[in-house]
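Troubleshooting entry. The earlier prediction with nicotinamide-adenine-dinucleotide gave an output that would not parse, so I re-checked the input for stray whitespace and re-submitted. Clean input:
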Amino acid sequence: MSTGSATGPLTFTPVEEIPNIRENLRSTFKTGKTRPLAWRRQQLRQLALMMQENRDALADSLWRDLHKPKEEVFIAEIGAVMARALESAEKLEEWAKPESLVGQVEDWQKDWNPRTHHQPKGTVLVIAPWNYPIILTLQPFMGAVAAGCCAVIKPSELAPTYAALLADLLPKYLDPSCFQVVNAEIEGTTKLLELQWDHIVYTGNGKIGRVVASAAAKHLTPVTLELGGKSPVIIDPASDLRLAAKRTLYGKYNNAGQICVAPDYVLIPTNKQDEFVGHLKEIYEEFFPDEGRSLSSESFGHIVNETHYKRVKALLDATNGDVVIGGRSQPPKGIELTVINNVQAGDSLMEEEIFGPLLPIVPVDDLEAAIQFVNDRDHPLILYLFTQNDKVKDYVLDNTTSGGLCINDTFQQLSVNMPFGGVGESGYGRQVLRYGFESCSNARAYVDVPKEAEQMLGVRYLPYNEQSRAV
Ligand code: NAD
């Protein structure tokens, strides 16, 4: 049974109930209820309706959990889930259509009707983090719904108001015999991970990603790991520096920098550094014209909790760089949008993913040095490059590795329907729309060998003879 209420505190699902929840979903899956495309379409539309009818309550829950401005919630979470759920419903037929492989087989095999069928994998577990609680629970979930799977959603306990609200809303809009919310901390999540699932989508940090992947390995369960890391911004001298500054700062203030694809740090040639920092200062003034600046702005999010506040503050306190914008903090959750110039490779700010509103500027000799800097570290989830030079675009594409590459902007890779995911330490697997559908589907290969093929196949049978040896 789902737990929680729209306004009450978060109630955790009793741990002993968790195996029954999984069992019930598996039983439903076996009945075939989730397979008809019309049923899946209807559930996806219900998901969109749930967003539409509860947009204020949903936005309010994120304001309480993260001080996230309504505008950011509407654009990046509620609006995106609605649009993608409706698009999934619309495109489902096309995605689910058997794919003919006739073009890939020998001429004499063409009448075998070779093709792949997308078959739902079964029951999917979605484990989500707190930073974009709505989209990161519901985007992987809609892949499962579209694929015809049953699913459990395990939201983050660090966004408790939303987690309670989701548990309350989901059974009112979608079929509870197929989809359940389990609210849990470590004990309950560990119980979930002991059980066998047919696919797991985990979004969060790499340390827990390893826990999830190890637990899944015991059952040979396939996993999508959406992790994080330090996503760099490379500024090429042949770029519009002011626009690069504006778009980079935009990428850092959203959700107070607590985004897996936030620009983590900037690599810029030393001779362009002062000009770039000058633009950042002007743009900061434009973004935050009030006296109180980002610390007290209604348009700027908070750090999610005191533990993360202390973590981010410690990184800032230990830096040897020069704070050129912001720098103030206010316990328990306020840290100003802060730019730190002249940061060196060994600095505290370069040790781990910042996941907060701090932007280090790291001077490098040239583009080659920037590429080397990136390649000496873990593969990032996304790499941002600002340049007007097409040769530089190709060169960076060919000489670096990351989950995605976005040129001349930040975040806009998310607004285009493209496969999303990491590589190496930033994760594996792909999702969003069709790619989420495919992750939760088994692409089952199919051939139907006609009687007439016997003529060509006869040679395989015993006893082997001169003719079979000549093949
Ligand atoms: P979090 O603390 O909310 O943890 C994520 C999930 O793991 C939660 O549901 C939590 O309950 C669960 N969890 C925690 N400890 C566990 C344990 N011991 N065993 C099993 N489950 C456990 O979120 P977080 O990890 O702080 O999220 C931030 C990280 O996620 C950052 O690294 C960020 O880059 C990454 N992230 C990646 C994406 C992406 O799409 N690639 C999106 C958002 C965030």
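This one parsed fine. The domain at 232-377+382-419 is CATH 3.40.309.10 (Aldehyde Dehydrogenase; Chain A, domain 2).
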